[in-house]
Amino acid sequence: MHQKTQVQRGKYMKKGQILAGGAATAGGELALGKNVLVAYMPWEGYNFEDAVLISERLEIQTHVTSQGPERITKDIPHLEARLLRN
């Protein structure tokens, strides 16, 4: 855990100001993720059917997160059904 202070000595703090940053933050925002290298491949080089290629291992690693298997649903919590009808 390497954290670096964002405050200089002798400066006053304001409410909501960032105190420290670390490996899991970027610009004061929580940034949990992984930098990956992907390939963008046009099919035959001429048409619209393009794809982004990733390895199967990366897909498995990101699908099975540390919080258990990823669940994809159309339901959005805390919203009424009438707001989701379209």
TrEMBL record:
Its EC number is 2.7.7.6. It is an enzyme of class 2 (transferase). GO terms for biological process: DNA-templated transcription. Gene3D superfamilies: 2.40.50.100, DNA-directed RNA polymerase, subunit 2, domain 6 (2.40.270.10). The keyword Amino-acid biosynthesis does not apply. Pfam families: RNA_pol_Rpb2_6 (PF00562). InterPro entries: DNA-dir_RNA_pol_su2 (IPR015712), DNA-dir_RNAP_su2_dom (IPR007120), DNA-dir_RNAP_su2_hyb_sf (IPR037033). It comes from the Eukaryota. Keywords: DNA-directed RNA polymerase, Nucleotidyltransferase, Transcription, Transferase. Residues 2-65 form the DNA-directed RNA polymerase subunit 2 hybrid-binding domain. One of its GO terms (cellular component) is DNA-directed RNA polymerase complex. GO terms for molecular function: DNA binding; DNA-directed RNA polymerase activity; ribonucleoside binding. The keyword Transferase applies. Belongs to the RNA polymerase beta chain family. This is DNA-directed RNA polymerase.
